[in-house]
Amino acid sequence: MHIIETRDLTFAYPNRPPALSGVNFTAGRKERVAVIGANGAGKSTLFKHLNGILTPSSGEVLVHGESVTKRNLREVRKAVGLVFQNPDDQVFSPTVEQDIAFGPANLGLDEETIAHRVESAIQLMALEDLRDRPPHHLSGGEKKRVAIAGVLAMEPQVLILDEPTAGLDPQGVADLIRFVNTLPEAFGMTVIFSTHHLDLVPELADSVYVMDHSRVVAHGSVPAIFSRPDLLEQTRLDVPALQRLMRDLRDVGVPIGEGYTYEEVREAFTAAYRGRA
After folding, report:
1. Residue 60: enclosing H or E segment and its boundaries?
2. Which of 191, 210, 211, 237 has the least C-beta neighbours within 10 A?
3. Are 10 and 59 in contact (CB under 8 A)?
4. How much is the pLDDT for 49?
5. How far apart, in Å, are the Cα atoms of 21 and each of 58, 82, 132, 145, 214?
6. What is the pTM of this model?
7. 244-271 as b/e, with b when 16 or more CB fall inside 10 Å?
8. Quick one: pLDDT at residue 140?
9. Closest by alpha carbon to 2, among 44, 71, 57, 60?
10. What is the DSSP letter of 3?
11. Maximum CA pair distance of the chain?
12. Is the alpha carbon torsion for 117, 120, 126, 130 positive or negative?
């Protein structure tokens, strides 16, 4: 059974064309799933359905095999946490510590449990020095970390990150990659994320969905998707720089193999240089 699934999910905002058209999507336990697509493809709208913020026009969303309804919405939001693209939509309490406590408090947890979860989330996101600061005084990257901490404090089984690297500096991006990659094994968590930075996808994802004009147009492993530059170009996405370079080298006769993550590409270049490709 998939931990989260959509079946023929369709949704339209009032007086606008469909934002989702027959979307079928699945994610398994401890899986890392990337959803990529140009602006307006439907990624954020899909994410808002996965924890019940939006209600489908038709089709359904299932969590642990059960259709999401008004009756089980509280349980769904315990299981599925969503971090918005813009942290200002999510961070609003007087202090960082209070903001992180907001979600667990809404779950009806006792004060001791809330305090424990808040402290754990603060440590996970390295927010010890910011706990008493007003969130609106923080940088964009700091707000993003607070927003993620607030969702982690609810201890979801699925963490959804909408453009998680937006507003982060290079060190913040590197830290986020390391953190996200610990979640499946350390916490048994499924991670679903969107990004316009396709170079990050091989470092973060086990599988990839490609969306275009409200539909899923492709789904597969990282090699299956990134070995199709025609697909990426047709959906208005840039081929990642490393894959573009390797393709260009092969076109001029350099015997270089395939690679998608930084480590794989480094090994391919090393093998080619030594004449073993």
Report:
1. strand 58-63
2. 237
3. yes
4. 97
5. 9, 22, 44, 33, 5
6. 0.93
7. eebeeeeeeeeebeebbeeebbeebbee
8. 85
9. 60
10. S
11. 65
12. positive
| CA separation for the pair 77, 98 (Å, rounded) | 19
Stated as kind and residue range, the H or E segment containing 175 is: helix 170-187
The answer to whether the Cα torsion of 86, 91, 96, 99 is positive or negative is negative
Element at 59 (helix H, strand E): strand 58-63
At residue 190, the 3 state secondary structure works out as strand
Domains of the chain (ranges plus CATH)? 4-228 (3.40.50.300), 240-277 (no CATH)
Compute the half-sphere exposure of residue 139: CA atoms within 13 Å on the CB side of its CA.
8
Contacts of 46 (CB under 8 A, 6+ apart): 6, 9, 20, 23, 25, 35, 211
The helix/strand/coil state of 85 is: coil
Segments in the chain below pLDDT 70: 1, 276-277
Nearest to 6 by CA among 38, 44, 51, 37: 51
Per-residue pLDDT tens over the stretch 6-40: 999 999 999 999 999 999 999 999 999 999 999 99
- A 10 A CB-CB count for 19 gives 23
| Strands annotated E in 181-240 | 190-194, 207-212, 215-221
What per-residue confidence (pLDDT) applies to 277? 44
Tokens (6 digits) for 123? 């440590």
The DSSP bridge partners found for residue 5 are 26, 62
Q: What strands, in cross-sheet order, belong to the sheet with 215-221? A: 80-83, 158-162, 190-194, 32-36, 207-212, 215-221
Q: What is the pLDDT of residue 91?
A: 87
Q: For the chain, state the CA radius of gyration.
A: 20
φ, ψ dihedrals at 98, nearest 5°: -65, -35
10 Å CB burial of residue 75 (0-12, 13-18, 19+) is middle
